[in-house]
Structures are given as structure tokens and as C-alpha cells.
Amino acid sequence: MSLDIDYYELLEVERTADEKTLKTAYRRLAMECHPDRNPGCDKSEAKFKAINEAYDVLKDPQKRAAYDRFGKAAFENGGMGNGGARGGAGFGDFSDIFESFFGDAFGGGRQRGPVRGADLRYDLEISLEDAFHGRTTEIAIDVAAKCGDCEGTGAKPGTSTRRCNLCGGHGKVRAQQGFFVVERTCPTCHGRGEVIEDPCRKCGGEGRVDERQKIEVTIPPGVDEGTRIRVAGKGEAGPNGAPAGDLYIFMHIARHKVFERDGTTLFCRAPISFTKAALGGEIEIPGPDGSKHSVNIPEGIQSGKQLRVRGAGMPVLQGRGRGDLVIQIDVETPTRLTARQKELLCEFRETETGEECPQSRGFFDKVKEFWDDLTE
């Protein structure tokens, strides 16, 4: 140990500090005590190493639990303190014992070798037109990337690591629980068998540094709300030079001024005048690709009627063909009439027989029968 001080006191945090608080405190202190900022100061260099040592323990849930229970004795001479198991931290639950004995046989054991970096999520909003055509765009993300100075090893360039004293370089330790002797990954070296003696100054022994990266993303035609695009190897860098995770981009389609979407089908509402509804005619509806579709309005069409244009909807994602464009007709009653228009409508009303609007006539016939029944 570089400094015989409680790890929490060393990092200047409470014992209940969460992961974010620990990380913030570590970065602040590491910057203050960094050898580059304190050249020739042995005390600062020793504190810098001690801070890294403390953070390495407290950021790991298993090692932190062992430290909270037994202090530094948990990592010295292969002991855990009174009542603890030799050679490592205690058991979380019986599943650890089961996995240690039967995991490899049944394919469910703990992962061997380097631990892959974490996957990342990015939410990207695009227009309906971009979803129709597809596009290539550039996004910027903040990610823990592999340190360029130490190539992800965490060791200062030009220095070497030393064999882990806890596991003897095996990367595994044995712990006894009653009649069981269980082999687990070493909590000090995390299975590497080696310990960093002189941490990299740029990353503080983490092997990773936070940086902003720009990534080019190809969006295929036909993506929909919630479509997930995987960009391999663009997630967080793995610890100790392990492979990076993946980046998952979740697509969100911005609301459109004309269309609503359901899969590959596009919907739009088309208000038409009551004269066009009565006499019929044509309307022109745009497509998401800028094309124009002439739609025939049959005579006497009613509100709510849907007209379909085949193959004028969204493309099938990673497939062939397109969905349909569905136009819902809304017959609009005029609200601003000139005197002449009112006069013509009055003349039309005088000629009505009831046969022009059979649904209306049928409804009021039923209403009349209802009143007649009540008066009998």
C-alpha cells in the first residue's frame, strides 16, 4: 500500500458514495496529484498511485463489499479476515457456487478471457422523407475509448506489469465455503494474473479515456419507429485492452405534416367540398418521394370513405416493394357562403325529395316511428 489511509478518506467521499460520485472524486484528485502537474514530487506521485489503488477497489462491487467488511486485509496474504473465506471475496449467493461447479459443463459458467466493453445506445430522429429514401448521416457520441498512450493496457508506456500477489499470476483464487472449495476470478487482477505497477498517466491506469467520437451511420430505406441499427465495435472500449462493445442506434420518425404511418402503409386525410363529394372529380395527393398521385373521387362519396393507391406507401425494409397510400375522405360543409350561393342552395333544397340522401331520410323515418310509438 502506498498510503496507509482508508480508501474512502483517500478519495474524500462518504462510505455510501455511488459510482458517479466515486468517479468524479477520483478524476479530480488524480488531476491534482498527477506527476505531470507535480514534477519531481515523490509525495504527489505516491498519492497518485494510492488514489488509483483505492478507486480500483471501490469501483468494483465485489471488491468494495470485501473491503467494507474486512478492510485492506481482504486483499493481503490471501486472507479475508476472521470468518471470511481464504483467497478472495465471499459468495454473493448459491448461484455462484453452482456456476463454479457446473457452469462449464452446462455452458453457463462465467466468461473467460477479456471482458468485452459495454454496448451503447443512441436515439436518432429523422424525417419521414429520410426514412423513405434512406441516407448517410454523421453522429457524435461521448464514449470511453481505448487509451492511445498505453494501447488500453493501463500501464505507463515503457513499463511492465508485475505478477498478482493474491492469485500468484493464475488469474483465479479459491475460496472455501463450508465443505465447498470454489474457484473464482481474482478480484485484484480481474483474471489477468498481472497487476499494473506504474499506471499510465493519461488514463490513470484505466486503459480508457473519455472522448467525443464522430461516427458515420448508413440508414437504409424503410426504417420505422424503433428500428435498431447496430454499429459493431463502436461502443465502449473494454478494460485492459479488451474488445469494444457495439453501438445501437434507435430510430425515431418525426411527425409529418401530411402523412401518418403504420408499417409500410401511409395514411392521409383529404377534406373535399360537398359539391365535389356530390358530383365526383379528381384530387391530387403527393407521395413521400415527391411524386403526384391523381385520385378519382366517385359521385356521392361519404365522409370516412377510404381510397387506396397501391404501391405508393413506404418501402419494405431490406426487402422489395412498397406499401399503399390510403386517403380518407372528409366531406367539408361550407361555412362562408355568398348571397348567390345561398340562393342556389335554397333553390336546390326546394327540389329535394329525400331520395338524394337515403341515410338521412332513413334515420329521420326511424325517429318519427319512435315518437309515434311513445304517443300510442
Question: What are the SSEs and their pairings?
Answer:
Elements: H1 7-11, H2 19-33, H3 42-58, H4 61-70, H5 94-106, E1 120-126, H6 128-133, E2 135-146, E3 162-163, E4 172-177, E5 180-185, E6 194-195, E7 208-219, E8 228-231, E9 247-253, E10 260-262, E11 265-273, H7 274-279, E12 281-286, E13 292-297, E14 306-309, E15 325-332, H8 339-351, H9 358-375
Parallel strand pairs: 1-9, 11-15
Antiparallel strand pairs: 2-7, 3-6, 4-5, 8-9, 10-11, 12-13, 14-15
Helix pairs in contact: 2-3
InterPro entries: DnaJ, DnaJ_C, DnaJ_domain, DnaJ_domain_CS, HSP40/DnaJ_pept-bd, HSP_DnaJ_Cys-rich_dom, HSP_DnaJ_Cys-rich_dom_sf, J_dom_sf
Pfam families: DnaJ, DnaJ_C, DnaJ_CXXCXGXG
Subunit structure: Homodimer.
Beta content comes to 25-35%
Structural class: alpha+beta
Fourth-tier CATH superfamily name of one domain: Urease metallochaperone UreE, N-terminal domain
Q: Helical region count? A: 9
Shape: elongated
**CATH architecture assignment name of one domain:** Sandwich
Report Rg. 36 Å
Spans of at least 5 consecutive residues with low confidence: 77-112
Which strands sit side by side, in order, in the main sheet?
A: 10-11-15-14
Mean pLDDT score: 82
| Oligomeric state, counting identical vs distinct chains | single chain
| Helix residue percentage | 25-40%
Distance between the termini: 104 Å
Query: What is the total tally of β strands?
Result: 15
Element-by-element helix/strand order: HHHHHEHEEEEEEEEEEHEEEEHH
Which fold does the CATH topology of one domain refer to?
HSP40/DNAj peptide-binding domain
- CATH C-level class of one domain: Mainly Beta
